[in-house]
Amino acid sequence: MTEQRLLERAQGKAAAPLSVAYTPISTLADLRAAAQLAIQVEFTTVPAYLTALYSITDKSSAAYQALRSVVVEEMFHLNQAANILVGIGGQPKLTGSVVPVYPAYLPSASTTATPYVGLYRASQAVFRNVFMAIETPAPFTAPPQGSDYQTIGQLYKALSDGIERCVEQYGADKVFAENGSAEQRTDIYLGKFGGKAVKVTDADSAQLAIQQIVQQGEGAVNPTHPLVPQQPYGAYEHYGARTDGTYGPILGTPYELSHYYKFLRVADAPDFPDTLPIVSNPRVSDFTNPTALQAVKTFNVGYSVMLKNLEASFTKAGGGAADVYFTLALPLMHNQLPTLANLLMQLPVFPNGDPSVGPNAAPTFEYVEDASFDSFLAALKVLDKLLADHGLPPLLVAPVAPPAPPGPAPRHREALHGVIDGVRTLKSRSDAIGLGL
């Protein structure tokens, strides 16, 4: 029994009640499976948040900035969960059958108590009914739950409990033994957002990694309760519009707002920014506009290439001097894919449609098994020809990344040519690394 459990028993604290359906984690294989499940849960939220994010036209709005901060932190959570898996001898999987297909419930979640996660145009209703439901805090007494969980916090309680149990049963040396081919990442860039990547080497570091994920997502305390007298260094972590017009930490709240409370503020705001008129839960079979159809297929190829590189970044072959995370995955994630999504959301689903009215297309985030930089470039060239043949008007909203120069919004092909040039550069880097991606 751990020191913490002995202390709780000595103080007369009752252990959290166990669910009747809960099977405690007691083998190393099950522990690694639980960590992989945590990765997949974090993964599933990202495309849903990105779809709403890309649909917002006012990039300076509080809704956009709050959602963007959550997306960055979800990628941080994915990184933390991957570090836990590597630390206990596993290898993170981000491709193939683990890629979420939308709409869907969170992996292994209760289908009666958790939201049906889809790819929706941003709205206050989506923030309240879907995003807040994803990040709903677990009650303090909520039991651990490895499957059929009602909150993400219960899933992490099960993982935390499993780490303790396996350390007791097998010893820390056997639990925290990396497999030799996997690699943890502690250099993930979060910019102005919260969190610090933890290298998982023992039970304490694993629990710290879990704690950061849960506190950022659900929140450790109610942010309306002032803790400044007890927690003076936590006074600067409320995010919002500052007096100089920028968005960032300001005085007023003890901790950085959890994802749940960030979403609550957006849902309760008196107004909401305009959005592009995209379809919800798009399907490739719905697109009869050939240009939109090619654009969504092209996006899916690029998305799949990014996932392959992100997965490789947690291997020793993809780390070190090669470092496919910074040289390949991150540029795709921050530059090429957002620009493609922006272009896609301004293409009507049907031929001769009006992009200012819609319905417009949107990414479907489907995995393409044989995707490569070569096939990505080939798809981009086909899309470029279709855009040239149709002579489309300027984009309604300029791409977010890379930053658009001042002046009129670029035409579709101008934005696409920036993507093509970037992908050519990335392909050259990939060829030099030699991982066959």
UniProtKB/TrEMBL annotation:
Source superkingdom = Bacteria
The UniProt record lists the Iminophenyl-pyruvate dimer synthase domain at 36-265
> In its UniProt entry, what is this protein called?
Iminophenyl-pyruvate dimer synthase domain-containing protein
